Amino acid sequence: MKTWFWTLLVFVAAVALALVLREHSGNVLIIAQPYRIELSLTLAVLLLLASFLVLYIVLRVLAWISHSPGRFRSWRGLRAEKRDHELLENGWIHILEGRYTEAEKDLSKVLGRTRSGSRKVLAALASARAAHHMGEFERRDEALAQAREHASENIRLREAASIVAAEMYLDQNRPQDALVLLQPLQDASSRYFHATRLLLRAHRQLRNHDRVYELTRLLSRRGVIDKAEAQQLIEVSAAARLRQGGPENLKSIWSDLKSDERALPDIALAAAAIHTGQGNHDEAAKVLEAALNVRLDARLLNAYSQCPPEHVARRLSKAEEWLKTHPDDSALLAALGNLCLTGELWGPGEQYLLRSMKLRSDMRIHALLGNLYDRLGRPADATTHWRLASSVAGVLPVLPASRALPAADTRGDPTLIDVEHLPQAKVLSTLETPLAASAADFSDYAAADTAADAPAAGADEPRAAAPATPKAAGDDVSAQEEYFDSSPFVGIDLTQTSDRDTSRGSGNH
């Protein structure tokens, strides 16, 4: 559009000049002794225009000739820059494709030919990454040294070289060297999010749980880390801080956690372990209950079932509330069985353990049943279950513990190995839901505890097989009631948890 405008303007000027010259038909007289030149005005104007045009063309040609060396150098520079860009592009494509040898060849050409410091830095960093992937760490370090040398005057390139080197050091499990490069960037500005993530990774490798917790909080507030990943890192680091801090720092660390974070399994287990170690079983129960109200984790249930006998009643009541909403949870049934064994409720304990084994037959259930049957004077059944438990434990692999892994599904835990293919112990053919263990009547059996502790006569002798004799229905009911009311808690008043009338004397049934 601009070209057309100027062309039209020149034509308009030419037409106007022609009209002016036509109206003024004068002469131009040039006297230069001994010459006298007389021209028409029109011819004189045309000659002046032609002279200006010729002079302009001559000057332009002379200028073009005088600037030829500069143009040639510029042309060579553009050609070299295009070649460097092509080699850099091919080198990065080879790195992305995994052809590191070809990438190093192209990048070495760039390092040897280019005169640009920035392109040398980029080529050296790319070459270092290719050598790192090939395991050539000496060549990688040489390339990194070249990159730092050429980037000494450029702040951005120097920071880029530090970040790339730190990332490769972390891949090589050299977190201390990575910290030396990353810490200045973090101190300069906390908005280096990639550098902050690498710093978090370095502190995780060094097991600096305090710094992991702080950096995870920082990245979570900025929204540059996934919520699930942040929760996992906070769970692992906070649990480690609790274990390292001990009872002295429990209050400060616990108050720094959010309510939903306190219910995470690892954190709840660490806090409960500290309370238990201090003898605060009620506080430990509250911590575990808050976490179990969110999710019935098998590890939490196992910890919840470990308590002194005087705390069994309260925990049984709470666990039976969870059983109403989760009747088919194998870990919950196993925890109830363990609590019953601690409180010497042999009948309900066996029923809970058998129900749990029916859902998930594993080593721990067999071990608990073996202990129960041994306590009841049934050595054959006890030996059978102990054999099943030991046969599974003998083939378990030794797995490395990793606190950084998320909480796994307990059904896939190696300690819960199904042993249904092994010989099974004789169990009840029908597993009915037992009476709530917390509602059992213990007042009528104060003297039964002494009798249960005494070894039965001939308990170690093999029992002779007796012919099965039919029993009346009333006898089965009375025998079952006597079985489930086998022994009381020691030192616990559970009359408030009983569903039956406890006002009767110990001799009235």
TrEMBL record:
<dbReference type="GO" id="GO:0005886">
    <property type="term" value="C:plasma membrane"/>
</dbReference>
<keyword id="KW-0812">Transmembrane</keyword>
<dbReference type="Pfam" id="PF07219">
    <property type="entry name" value="HemY_N"/>
</dbReference>
<dbReference type="GO" id="GO:0006779">
    <property type="term" value="P:porphyrin-containing compound biosynthetic process"/>
</dbReference>
<keyword id="KW-1003">Cell membrane</keyword>
<keyword id="KW-1133">Transmembrane helix</keyword>
<keyword id="KW-0627">Porphyrin biosynthesis</keyword>
<feature type="domain" description="HemY N-terminal">
    <location>
        <begin position="26"/>
        <end position="135"/>
    </location>
</feature>
<dbReference type="GO" id="GO:0042168">
    <property type="term" value="P:heme metabolic process"/>
</dbReference>
<comment type="function">
    <text>Involved in a late step of protoheme IX synthesis.</text>
</comment>
<keyword id="KW-0997">Cell inner membrane</keyword>
<dbReference type="InterPro" id="IPR010817">
    <property type="entry name" value="HemY_N"/>
</dbReference>
<feature type="compositionally biased region" description="Low complexity">
    <location>
        <begin position="453"/>
        <end position="472"/>
    </location>
</feature>
<keyword id="KW-0472">Membrane</keyword>
<comment type="pathway">
    <text>Porphyrin-containing compound metabolism; protoheme biosynthesis.</text>
</comment>
<dbReference type="InterPro" id="IPR005254">
    <property type="entry name" value="Heme_biosyn_assoc_TPR_pro"/>
</dbReference>
<feature type="transmembrane region" description="Helical">
    <location>
        <begin position="42"/>
        <end position="65"/>
    </location>
</feature>
<feature type="region of interest" description="Disordered">
    <location>
        <begin position="453"/>
        <end position="509"/>
    </location>
</feature>
<dbReference type="InterPro" id="IPR011990">
    <property type="entry name" value="TPR-like_helical_dom_sf"/>
</dbReference>
<protein>
    <submittedName>
        <fullName>Heme biosynthesis protein HemY</fullName>
    </submittedName>
</protein>
